[in-house]
Task: structure prediction
Amino acid sequence: MNQNLLLCGVGGQGIVLVSKLVASCAMQKGYDVMSAETIGMAQKGGSVFSFLRFGEEIASPMFGRGQADLMIAFEPAEAVRMLPYLKKDGCIIVNTKPVMPVTAVLKASAYQGTEMLAYLKQNVSRLILVNGEKACHEIGSPRVLNMIMLGTAVRHGLLPFSVSEAETAMRQNVRPQFAELNQKALAYAESEK
Amino acid sequence: MHKEFLMGNAAIARGALAAGLNLICGYPGTPSTEVLETAAKYKPETLYVEWSVNEKAALEVGAGAAYCGSRTMVTMKQVGLNVASDPLMSLAYIGVKGGMVIMVADDPGPISSQTEQDTRHFASFSKLPCFDPSTVQEAYDMIQDAFAYSETYHTPVLFRPTTRVCHAYSSVMIKDPEEFYHNTPEGFIKDSSRWVIFPKLSYQAHMQIEKRNAELSAVFSDYAGNQILPAAKTDCRKGIASHGISFTYVKEALKDRENPAVLKISTPFPFPEQKALAFLQNLDEVLCIEELDPVIERELTYLCGKHHLPVRILGKLSGHIRTAGENTCDSVSQDIASFMGWENPEEHKLPEPPALPVRPPVLCAGCPHRASFYAVKTAMKGKKSVFCGDIGCYTLGNAMPLDMVDTCLCMGAGVNITQGIGHTEPDTACFAFVGDSTFFASAITGAVNAVYNQADMTLVVLDNSTTAMTGHQPHPGTGRTMMGEIVQKISIEDVLKGVGVKTVETVNPFSLQEAVGTVKKISAEKGVKAIIFKSPCAMLIKPQQILEVDQQKCIGCRKCITSLGCPAIVTADGKVKTDDSLCTGCGLCAQVCPVGAIGRAET
Result:
């Protein structure tokens, strides 16, 4: 049985690293793994995604709409944008803090993220909200959101590996001076319904 | 053999190393860049690696090495091959001694490119064999085959993955070092009848090339990368032809289905006619699922005509597949469903979402280009001016509110386009913006052209000391090479003065007042003059103390927002704030604020 994961958010939120860590853990479990992600110009403040699949027999690194078992969305509007990819009974983890695009700030647009969260609540049965802003503040760095999101997915049993296995992969992939901070973020347990 | 999780481009590099690569050179360009970077990372003692100054230089350096018997790879993106097309066309006639693979990455979409050109056409145009892998694993295996064919047939070969293969990751089986092929170059053997191109030689070479390609078409019909997947039921009279990443989408779409026969083409040129003929037997209709141009579709249509086969070939030319943009799992599964007469899979319908914010790419917080554009914009306010841009991060200076890129065409074009505008509209102040890497790649000839032909223009070099857009590669101005040497930096200022630009001034764009003053002064001079805005890419330097908006002093005029469009300046609850996760402390907004409300946060 293949598992399809979709990560989405805004360039600079550390999505690619999460994709790497999940891939590394899935490889450890003996699965074949494929992934595809946004690279290049769109990374600069644009919407970014990473498709990741693991299992026994995978043909393509991408998958179609309605096929993601799990989505980890780092931003509410990006969660809504990519929602068509979620399976009917799939689960989505969403960071509640919106990232205002420059275009919205310029036009003094009304986008605040709350309308997106309301839409998600109405249309997704398995929704896990993460107050990433609060979590980052408590951990003491604005740059650990990615580990908070990954830790949440693992703790909810949505990925086939443990927090300590994720930690091992993380330590192999981040610079030693940031390992402790990222470990705190992975283990961070606060999430709200 | 062992298993690793590799990006497609990394797999291409690792495969080339396993094939005994001796020299690799190229010019950065998405989606090709990581090939050379990976080769450098895993560099054996014997490998020479360089970022060349542009693709033409790279291809010529590669040719020289291949003349000596080196196994050589040259990497570039598809538009890079336009730059390298002059040596390419001639080298096809001269041929090589060592295996030479020209890795050219195509970009359906396009996702990060100016055009949706299809390198498979360059293959048939230059008459060079071409390989088109579908997966990361196949890319790893096929690049090794490419070297072998190149060496056997004494010809450079093209290897053209597309973005979704280059940038896909996959667990792949790769060779251990003891399984690697090792190549020891024989050295250059003088032979002017072989290495000097003359009309007589070209005539003979042309004859041989055509003969060889006919032979290769037969050889490729047995090549493992060209496959026929038989239909689930033998009486099915429909077939699908595909290639590259689209082939994997076809396989996904046919999972759990009674699949029709599928033809996969990995060598679009020379086209494996025998293989294709075997596929066309007993079929009534074939749908060609391709990205970019309908190369396979044309070949199959031609074959049907040549052999009087009553098979309808469908695809882009017949209007069954859209002509532009990339394929997706969804588009391919719909195309196949309509072709086969299957019902489209039921889709989980969602209600209309709230208006989604658009997120066009923007200059990063702290990007020195923002300061440079703003300085020129401020200095030229109210004056008739034109701002020609170029290829790089700074193309994003076109976005509101900066709105400082009026034209962008191809690498190095801006400096010449602005001259053409100036000759036509002498009352316009003409500017050309060019990055440091693009300057070395292809703007120096433009500067010479301007000086020689008495243009009246200001060349603005945005020198952030790196090739930022493609991920920070070194270039001649950085003083570092891919061999790890520290070398003499080539000074842009000296180059410009050397070609006769009399006024060349270097300014830090974050000293806003000084920058504006310099632009005002220099742009008023006649002739060709240059400003070098020098400040390192924000991604390369440690952030400074971030800035904060003093809510007591802020009058809510939004000038910082409407002048700069910095992603680190946001509004929350009607107040202007800085986003501490993005601000780099560049201090530009503090210089723009009319009431001094923005200052360094206290530590």
